[in-house]
Specification:
Blueprint lengths: L5 E10 L17 E9 L2 E10 L5 E4 L2 E9 L2 H8 L9 H12 L9 E8 L5 E5 L8 E4 L3 E5 L19 E2 L7 E2 L4 E8 L2 E9 L12 H20 L6 E3 L4 H13 L4 E7 L5 H11 L2 E7 L1 H5 L2 H8 L4 H16 L6 E3 L5 H4 L9 H13 L10 H4 L4 E3 L5 H9 L6 E2 L2 E2 L1 H6 L6 H5 L5 H4 L2 H11 L7 H18 L9 H19 L1
Parallel strand pairs: 14-15, 14-17, 15-16, 17-18
Antiparallel strand pairs: 1-3, 1-9, 2-3, 4-5, 5-6, 6-7, 7-12, 8-9, 8-11, 10-11, 12-13, 19-20
Helix pairs in contact: 1-2, 3-4, 3-12, 4-5, 7-8, 7-17, 16-17, 17-18
Length: 515
Amino acid sequence: MLGPNLVSGFSVRVSWASGPATPTAPQFATQGHHIPVEAAYAGRMLRGTAVCLGTPAALARDGATHLLLGGEIYNREAIAGAVGNAFLTHGSDAELVLAAWLHWGISAFRILNGRFAAVILDSGGRIVLATDHAGSFPLWVRADEYGVDVSSEAKTLARGKSLAVDVPGAQLIPRGAGVHRVPAGTALILETVQGEVRTSSVVRTWAPPLSRTAPAPDAAVAKVRELLGEAVRTRLRDESEPTVVLSGGIDSSGVAAHAVAHSALVHTVSMGTDVSDEFEAAAAVAGHLGTDHQEISVDSADLVRELPWAVWAAEITDHTILEYLLPLVALYRRLPPGPRRILTGYGADIPLGGMHRRTERLDFLDAVIAHDMATFDGLNEMSPVVSGVAGIWSTHPYWDRDVLDCLVTLDAGLKRRYGRDKWVLRESLTGMLPDATLARPKLGIHEGSGTTSAWTAELLGRGVPEEKVEEAKAAMARRMHELIVLGGERPEDVSFDEVLLSTESALRLERRTVT
């Protein structure tokens, strides 16, 4: 098991004047070894810390242009061929992206397919900040009169001492002390005029397609099978023994089946609780594929008390999304330590409409898929920090750019067909998985692990009225975000029970006031 070799997080400051320095030891949730990064040109100084798995080249340089890359690129062969340098397929991803930048300029980010964030200090002294198409490697920014702080984690910027200024083109996070988020599929070119940050260009490099195609069913099935297989293959890199999170549902089982086709040995892992599990369904798939399979069981009371860790990783206040992520965070934190590359089936529901399996009318199904694709940005569901809290690199083949473009644009009648949800995906995996798996109804990871019912039970058991449960969950998530992301507290120092108690007290006071 070689493990990943990449930058999994970073925090750097690009400065153009003397002023308050960024702390040299930011408190990352992402686990890994820290290396210093430094570059300078045209009165601009880049200095900070990269969190690494393996021994990657964090910075690449060509003359006066410097590039810091977090994450990895999946269409390496195509990029190397297009720029006319086959040797780039054997170099670092930072060198590959730098070559693409020098060849195409800002358009490079419309061509790159990966899970990455990039910071470029170019020969003109400009600062370029870019995210991948899905924003799956978050990029946070905080600017002041002396420079720009850029990080893969908002918490490293939230307590800045100097006066923050606006970053045009980025989105200011609520109560974030001037912290902005670079939108998914966006490249910002920042310049300064008389000490003020100006955005000379805000370039959208990807947007969810609204057009639809209606290929013949057999052609659509073949295309989905080809693209998903290629997405899995490119994510394996040089890893001979990858791990796949396996629930036994069609999404994760499809990833496992394609991983087995390209790997000497695939490890699979499933998680459940005393409330619910999918061990039987996952074991059936693992047995069929011949994977090295492991089951991890967590007490449901312990699972919901992982909430501070989920907030620490995802840096969001959306309690619904946190429920989805809780079992994953708990699972990653219970895996054996050491370098590990994990593939998941996460995210397939969004372009395929899996969350709307009871929506019968095809025009309604297509409408909700379009809405979900238009509103995913900022949810941080696929942030690498979710697994990075355990020093693990995770990646999600269904949100490969080519797979996503294909799935989103397919006619809704290929997603729901003959009364079956995700029909085109199920058909593409025929012959690779057991028939029972191909026909198995959708069950969300938070449902299969009992996360939703466990958190609800905790609240009901403390006297929260049933009609106030969702409100209480939302209040707990906001309070933990305030303490951990904005306040700098560590998750082990934030008590689920104390936050629940304060939330319960606030709700009681509210009810008395209303009465």
